[in-house]
Amino acid sequence: MKNIPSIHKSSSQPQKLAALRQAHQDWNNTPDVLTRLTRRLSTTLSLEQHLAILAEELGAIVPFDTLNYRHQIGKQDFVYTTGMGGPHRCEYRLSLEGVNYGILVLHRKQRFSEQELAGVEMILSAAICPIRNACQFIAIEQASLTDSLTGIPNKRAMVDALQRASLLSERHGEPYSLILCDLDHFKAVNDTHGHVVGDHLLQIAAAELEKAVRTSDSVYRFGGEEFAILLPHTPEQDAKDVADRIRSAIAGIRIDAGEKELNITTSCGVATFLPKESSQEWLARADEALYRAKHQGRNCTRVFATIS
Ligand SMILES: Nc1nc2c(ncn2[C@@H]2O[C@H](COP(=O)(O)OP(=O)(O)OP(=O)(O)O)[C@@H](O)[C@H]2O)c(=O)[nH]1
């Protein structure tokens, strides 16, 4: 068994505790800008809040008219701006251990002095680690909402979006439609050509779906060979037309798989949101429509009609 060293009580412990209490009080009430800045930044992982805190603390020392921050995080172009510009500017590339975490630009009417620039750099050097953490948090959040094979949003992202869409549809009375689309006999593709070809086909299908819909529509990988398309401001008949367009786009895919070209069809189920129903009920209706499409011959679209 391992020997665990015992903690010796010593007479200095009350003094250490008193010193700790004092340090904690100082830490809480410190007028020191760097301690206050890092303490405030440590309370959140939101990059937006980091920049708001940074702007406030920085502006109290080096006044500026505009703070502009920009960073590409995965597919997201993150932009944060306060204020209304000015002819003089200083620009900083925020990087840590060779990795870039965005570009920060300050503008104002008066020229920045050398001392002020040195002050800005001191403050930025204290903020860079928390900013790195906030950027990484966004990247991790993005990854958790993205399907790693196809690069499109995954089921978790879809469930969130569906919930938001049902609230918006309810509030504004706008029609929102959902298409579930499932590739036909996909197991046979894997069995005949192998999983690598199956994966390739899924990637091409995802890209074709994104091309077939409007930029305001969203495509999700819902499961193995199943995709979901959320169509804002789209009534039932228009959604059915989109589903048929999607089926044509998928049917047009050609993959060179050795002796002969591989092609595939898809079945689609459509449901338009009904007032008062939950997002799960909406999804279940689209699923039921897809089930009918599968069981009525595949390569077709079925609508769970809102009017009986
Ligand atoms: N290559 C590949 N195959 C997958 C992936 N996810 C699921 N699959 C396969 O997709 C197939 C789905 O098979 P089924 O559910 O029987 O459906 P199907 O063969 O398309 O038949 P129907 O949907 O009834 O037309 C299974 O063989 C899964 O292994 C994936 O990420 N890559």
Count of DSSP-assigned helices:
9
Report the biggest beta sheet as strand number plus sense, adding barrel if it closes.
Answer: 5 strands, mixed
Using only C-alpha atoms, the radius of gyration works out to 28 Å
**Which class do the helix and strand fractions yield?**
alpha+beta
How many strand elements? 11
The stretches of 5 or more residues where confidence is low (pLDDT under 50) are: none
The helix-strand sequence is HHHEEEEHHEHHEEHEEEHE
What is the CA–CA distance across the termini? 74 Å
The CATH architecture name of the largest domain reads 2-Layer Sandwich
Number of self-contained structural domains: 2
Average per-residue pLDDT, rounded, comes to: 93
Q: Bound small molecules, which ones?
A: guanosine-5'-triphosphate
CATH homologous superfamily identity of the largest domain: Reverse transcriptase/Diguanylate cyclase domain
Query: Which range does the strand content fall in?
Result: 15-25%
Name of the level-1 CATH class of the largest domain = Alpha Beta
With strands numbered from the N-terminus, the spatial order across the biggest sheet is 6-7-5-10-11
Q: What general outline do the C-alpha atoms trace?
A: elongated
List keywords for this structure.
five-stranded mixed beta sheet; 9 helices; Beta-Lactamase; alpha+beta; Alpha-Beta Plaits; 2 domains; four-stranded antiparallel beta sheet; binds guanosine-5'-triphosphate; 308 residues
